[in-house]
Amino acid sequence: MDEIEWWEFDTAAEMAEQVAGDIGFVVESAIEAHGNARLALPGGNTPDPIYKALAKSKGIAWPKVTLIPSDDRLVPAGDPLSNQGKLAGYFAAKGATVVPLVEESALGDYRKAGREADARLAELQWPLDLVCLGMGADGHTASIFPGPDFEGAVAGPKSRRAIGVRPDPMPEAAAVERVTLTAAAIASARTVMIVISGAEKRQVLEQALKEGPLSKLPIGRVLADMDIPIDIYWSAS
User: Fold this and answer.
1) d(Cα 109, Cα 112) in Å, to the nearest integer?
2) Per-10-residue mean pLDDT for the chain, 237 residues long?
3) How many whole angstroms separate alpha carbon 128 and alpha carbon 149?
4) Residues 157, 76: Cα–Cα separation, whole Å
């Protein structure tokens, strides 16, 4: 693991403005450097204030931006649980391309969905300019959970960019199978951000970082193999 820098905020609103500004800077820098920007962004409710602020940003050439979910649930794009649907709702009308991880033809087979997502992502230019991650209170990140597919997600072939996963135990809030970026795909990004809030999550993340590659927490395993600087954004509330 390389350099880690913490950015601390009193409120989630303050953090959201800063994160949106920093994502906007990454986008503009990538477009200037190689003509486009490719980002993986998280789902769930926590990023909503960030996306609202980012959508209001001036000067971003959205038609040159490609977005993918860092993970997604095996649900139709119109389902409230769909991370693809969330990103499209904020940014598709602005001209951004939103690449799905999940196609409806594979909703009944998470392993097939993972294979199809991996093939789809292989058609993009790599590496990604940014991967932004959240983290659950249980230490999962993206949809890398404990379960039968955990080792494949964190220690599978480095050429594998996406994998289907079945969490065990299944999360109560969204008890569905998933497709997620692999740890290798995340680690290959030019920039990695982690955005969390609350004392409990900070304690979990600090413990995972301390344990490193021996961590039993998904976030610890994902971050242990990274050799790029990691920016952690944390708000007290």
Assistant:
1) 5
2) 89 97 98 98 93 95 98 96 97 98 94 98 97 96 96 96 97 94 97 97 97 94 92 96
3) 23
4) 28
What SS3 state is found at 36? coil
**pLDDT value for 225:** 83
Structure tokens at 195: 């955005």
Residue pair 118/199 in contact (Cβ under 8 Å)? The answer is no
Instruction: Find the DSSP H helices in 98-197.
Output: 110-121, 150-155, 183-187
CB 36 within 8 A of CB 63: no
Burial of 59 (0-12, 13-18, 19+ CB in 10 A): exposed
Q: Quote the crossing angle between the two packed helices 48-55 and 12-34, to the nearest 10°.
A: 50
The contacts of residue 233 (CB under 8 Å, 6+ apart) are 7, 9, 15, 18, 19, 193, 194, 195, 196
User: Is there a contact between 74 and 117 (Cβ–Cβ < 8 Å)?
Assistant: no
